[in-house]
Amino acid sequence: MRGDDQQLQSGMFSYVALEDRIPAGHPLRGVRKLVDAVLAEMSNDFEGLYSKVGRPSIPPERLLRALLLQVFYSVRSERLLMEQLNYNLLFRWFVGLEIDDPVWNHAVFSKNRDRLLNQDLAQRFFAHVKAQATGLMSDEHFTVDGTLIEAWAGQKSFSRKDNDKDGDGGAGDFRGEQRRNQTHASSTDPEARLYKKSAGQEAKLSYLGHTLVENRNGLIAAAMTTQADGRAERDAALLMLHDLRRKRGGRITTGADRAYDTRDFVSTVRELGVTPHVARRQNGAIDERTSRHPGYAISLSKRWLVEKPFGWLKQIGPLKKVKLRGLAKVDWLFVFSCAAFNLIRIPKLRAQSA
């Protein structure tokens, strides 16, 4: 029998609870439970960020849940995120809005986000998420690597620092001109650097994102962002390994690609109590004393795990080309997105190990 398609007056009331509309097996259910536990632990952190008087802001818990949805579903702007929150019941349920609750203005949401989120809070959120992965992460074997994050700045904004003597504002034809980070800077994002990771690639205004991944399930154990230069990857690796060694005892190993096979990096890592399982290059610092052990080959075979987060962060997450300017903002976005990657992975890993 054919169904009726007459556009009758819609019902004024709904008797189905929002909770009942979300399937019991939906992937976001496990993520929501995990996020609620993390945000409950951070309640005291939020309390110190707000005044006791004045108009109520957007609740920080709801703001962070909304930002997680923006990462999970590749929503490219706050305006589109608010549009989705207006009519998408799944989004409303995850954030904590009832069906009749009004949605915030996109500019108000962005202002509250900028007030709340900084590098310190993003790192604390990341640490609380990592604490939920107890039993799922290796505490001995890790892999480190970095990736280029394209800045929100165009090539024509990269002009001379000496006020552009030609007077064309840097918007003229720069073909054939030698442009260096020492003499040029972007007028759009002065902290971005012109950089390329390998020969033959186009140099772009970029930052470098760094992750330290554990070798059991590929969860991110540490993350940070730096300006792009030739030493940034090794310097960031040393900082993350030093912080990791400070929090735990015993010797650990770290795998890395050939770019890390330098004498100063290898010697410093060994001083930190870390065994460098770095891919060897000709005349490098790694010799048979390290490479002859079976663990060395195992660490190199696990190096692909560090590439999975980078692929997710750029294809699904917002880090292929960031829409924020300045190292501080790019850093919190990178760290927050790494926490989102772990949040997606942890419920799945728990289900597999159950």
Features:
alpha/beta, 354 residues, 14 helices, Nucleotidyltransferase, domain 5, 14% strand, 2 domains, 6-stranded mixed sheet, two-stranded antiparallel sheet
Q: The CATH topology of the largest domain, please?
A: Nucleotidyltransferase, domain 5
| Secondary structure: helix percent | 40-55%
> What is the element string, with H for helices and E for strands?
HHHHHHHHEEEEEEHEHEHHHH
Question: What is the CATH C level class of the largest domain, in words?
Answer: Alpha Beta
Q: What would CATH call the architecture of the largest domain?
A: 2-Layer Sandwich
Radius of gyration, CA atoms, in whole angstroms: 24 Å
Strand content: 5-15%
Decide which structural class fits the backbone. alpha/beta
User: What's the oligomerization state?
Assistant: single chain
Largest sheet: 6 strands, mixed
Low-confidence stretches: none
Compute the number of structural domains.
Answer: 2
N- to C-terminal distance: 46 Å
Q: Number of DSSP helices?
A: 14
- Average of per-residue pLDDT values: 89
Description:
The protein has 354 residues and is α/β, with parallel strands linked by helices. The protein has two domains: 18-116, no CATH class; 138-170 and 179-324, Nucleotidyltransferase, domain 5. 43% of the residues lie in helices and 14% in strands. The protein has 14 helices and eight strands. The protein has helices at 18-21, 27-41, 43-47, 60-72, 78-87, 89-95, 106-116, 119-131, 232-247, 263-271, 288-291, 294-301, 307-315, 327-353; strands at residues 141-150, 158-160, 184-186, 193-195, 204-214, 220-227, 252-256, 274-278. Strands 1, 4, 5, 6, 7 and 8 form a six-stranded mixed β-sheet that branches. Strand 4 (193-195) and strand 5 (204-214) form a beta hairpin. Helix 2 (27-41) crosses helix 14, helix 5 crosses helix 6 (89-95) and helix 5 crosses helix 7. The longest helix has 27 residues, at 327-353. The protein is globular and about 80 Å long. The two termini are 46 Å apart.
